[in-house]
Write a structure and sequence with these properties.
By secondary structure, the chain is mostly helical. It contains 10 helices and no strands. The protein is 77% helix and 0% strand.
Length: 197
């Protein structure tokens, strides 16, 4: 029961922090959302900051990196790898917009753990794409690129697209579906990397 209560507190706190930001959420609000007293919440966490740290740590477990990377490692076409990574990220962040909001609130507030978590989430994705790009480069499929820089730019482009689509539901004031953004951007990006003939 104790572990279930702790998970409930983390879940409710995640929703509150992502909606209002760290500063505007109180322990009383978190406890109330869980249907417990402040004292009951303090049996599981030392402070609001402790709850927040646990919320941020829980974000890492929400992205199924291992499964995603296993699936993408089976694909031998660069454009398809980038397409599937973009599709996964846009769909995942659309379904988990609280994750993105929470990371943004945390980054704006300058929370050091949030920067670390965000860097780890992005870093894992960048590292994977950089590894795949290096393999394509080694096979002579791409130009002589720096895989790490190219991967950073790619993940940055997709995350920025997710930000627009998921938080404001538009790009440049016009409603755009994730699939439309993928169809438009991925071929341009991928084909710019692949050697001609």
């Amino acid at each position: 029961m104790t572990e279930d209560r702790k998970k409930q507190i983390i879940k409710e706190a995640t929703a509150l922090f992502s909606r209002y930001g760290y500063d505007k959420v109180s322990v009383k609000q978190i406890a109330s959302a869980c249907g417990v007293s402040d004292a009951a919440l303090y049996r599981h966490f030392n402070s609001k900051a402790d709850v927040y740290d646990h919320v941020l740590e829980s974000l890492l477990k929400r992205i199924p990196h291992k499964e995603l990377f296993e699936n993408l490692n089976k694909i031998n076409d660069l454009e398809k790898v980038l397409h599937e990574m973009a599709r996964f990220l846009l769909e995942f962040l659309n379904k988990n917009d609280d994750l993105y909001r929470l990371l943004l609130f945390s980054a704006l507030r300058g929370h050091s753990k949030a920067r670390k978590i965000y860097a780890q989430i992005r870093g894992d994705l960048i590292e994977f794409i950089a590894g795949r790009l290096q393999a394509f480069k080694d096979r002579g499929i791409t130009y002589d690129i720096n895989p790490l820089i190219t991967a950073r730019c790619f993940i940055g482009m997709v995350m920025d697209c997710a930000l627009g689509l998921n938080l404001w539901h538009s790009l440049g004031g016009r409603a755009v579906q994730p699939e439309e953004a993928i169809r438009n951007n991925i071929p341009i990006y991928a084909r710019g990397l692949i050697k001609k003939g």
